[in-house]
Specification:
With 402 residues, this protein is of the alpha/beta class. It has 13 helices and 18 strands. The protein has 2 domains: 102 residues, Enolase-like, domain 1; 260 residues, Enolase-like C-terminal domain (TIM Barrel, Alpha-Beta Barrel).
Length: 402
């Protein structure tokens, strides 16, 4: 079997997605997700202009060698654009393998380690009462784990809160909007939010929270300690992780579990975090982390240090990545939990898929390969729309982490 063609599809059924289709001389094709939120066209160009000509004529079964060729052979390594492009090819090749062997992808990764994949949903609201109402709706829908975010008294807007009724989508059309932020107001509010959540829903529900990189390590240590009585499943992205040593301060001050990594693109971003046991869950995604080939190694490395996976699963990842993640989650031993933000109806129509949700769990399905298709004619009806993530400033105007 040889790769005969590869093409990039850019579509916007509610939000932008970049999808790679790799075709072979035996009529089997594979799909890979190359979406990088707010920088989609950079990855599309990297693929079209630099990578795709290099894979034509190669054997798609040689995933390890092709991955090393694209990573080491370029000389310029890592970075989200490069790694998202490599991931798209890698996942497409694994999809081809599964289809050629007539077996779902999880069987190529060791088979089932579990029957279903525990997922968490996103509950949010403009204030505590409305956030808890949304938690109740998620429970009614069958979720056993819920991330809770609410508006902060004194701030006009904050991360994770939908502007209007309905789903939350951080990317916004047009140029980046600017939001005001106060860590002091946030730190005062969040413990009261989770006190109410536990009082309302009891101990049977898994509760999660995302700090979204906005705290210093000592602030995160304080928040984690104050959240300990409410037994969170995790506190996510408490501080920017360029300084991995900063997580030692957090670990020294709290036993609240820590997750991090949705912006990581290499195991080296988490190397010290894992080997020093400063985190509990690695959230690096298959698409931004370079694909299935390197994520298998990252998960194995993490397992040596009691670190589990908790893959990012927001709507900025297409159903192709969700499917890949669910197969991966099903197979690996040290799986923890999977984020789930349901896509729009239009997105699900563009990407028909086999995976499903029931009673708080996701199932990848048993179709060969990933179990996801791409309706190219329908995708062509949704033209690319420029969109950016917001910008965050402190109350005095200082630019800070969004």
């Amino acid at each position: 079997m040889k790769i005969t063609n590869a093409k990039v599809n850019v579509t916007c059924p509610g939000r932008n997605f970049v999808t790679l289709k790799v075709e072979t001389d035996e009529g089997i094709y594979g799909l890979g997700d190359a979406t990088l939120n707010g920088r989609e066209l950079s990855v599309a160009s990297y693929l079209q202009d630099h990578i795709l000509p290099c894979i034509i004529g190669r054997d798609p079964f040689q995933t390890e060698d092709i991955w090393q060729y694209l990573y080491r052979g370029a000389y310029w390594r890592r970075g989200p654009v490069t790694m998202s492009a490599i991931a798209a090819i890698d996942v497409a090749l694994w999809d081809i393998k599964g289809k050629a062997l007539n077996t779902p992808l999880y069987n190529l990764l060791g088979g089932k380690s579990r029957e279903g994949v525990l997922v968490y949903g996103h509950a949010n609201g403009k204030d505590t009462d409305s956030a808890l109402e949304d938690v109740a709706r998620h429970i009614d829908a069958g979720y056993k784990a819920v991330r809770v975010q609410s508006g902060i008294p004194g701030l006009a807007s904050t991360y994770g809160i939908a502007k209007n009724a309905g789903r939350y989508e951080p990317a916004e059309r047009g140029l980046p909007s600017e939001h005001a932020w106060s860590s002091e107001l946030y730190l005062r509010h969040v413990p009261t939010l989770f006190a109410r959540a536990r009082e309302t829903f009891g101990e049977g529900l898994h509760l999660l929270h995302d700090c979204h990189h906005r705290l210093t390590p000592i602030e995160a240590g304080r928040l984690g300690k104050e959240l300990e009585p409410f037994h969170l499943f995790w506190m996510e992205d408490p501080t920017p992780a360029e300084l991995q040593d900063g997580f030692k301060i957090i670990r020294d001050h709290t036993t609240t579990p820590i997750s991090v990594g949705e912006v990581f693109n290499s195991i080296w971003d988490a190397h010290d975090l894992i080997r020093n046991q400063w985190i509990d869950y690695l959230r690096m995604t298959i698409v931004h982390g370079g694909g299935i080939t390197p994520l298998r190694k990252a998960a194995d490395f993490a397992s040596l240090y009691h670190v589990r996976t908790g893959f990012h699963g927001a709507t900025d990842l297409s159903p192709v990545t969700m499917a890949a993640a669910l197969h991966f989650d099903t197979a690996i031993h040290n799986f923890g939990i999977q984020e789930l933000m349901p896509h729009t109806e239009e997105t699900d129509q563009v990407f028909p898929h086999q995976y499903s949700f029931k009673d708080g769990m996701m199932y990848p399905g048993d179709a060969p390969g990933l179990g996801v298709a791409l309706d190219e004619k329908l995708a062509a009806k949704f033209e690319y729309q420029r969109a950016y993530l917001p910008i965050n400033r402190k109350l005095d105007g200082t630019l800070t982490d969004w």
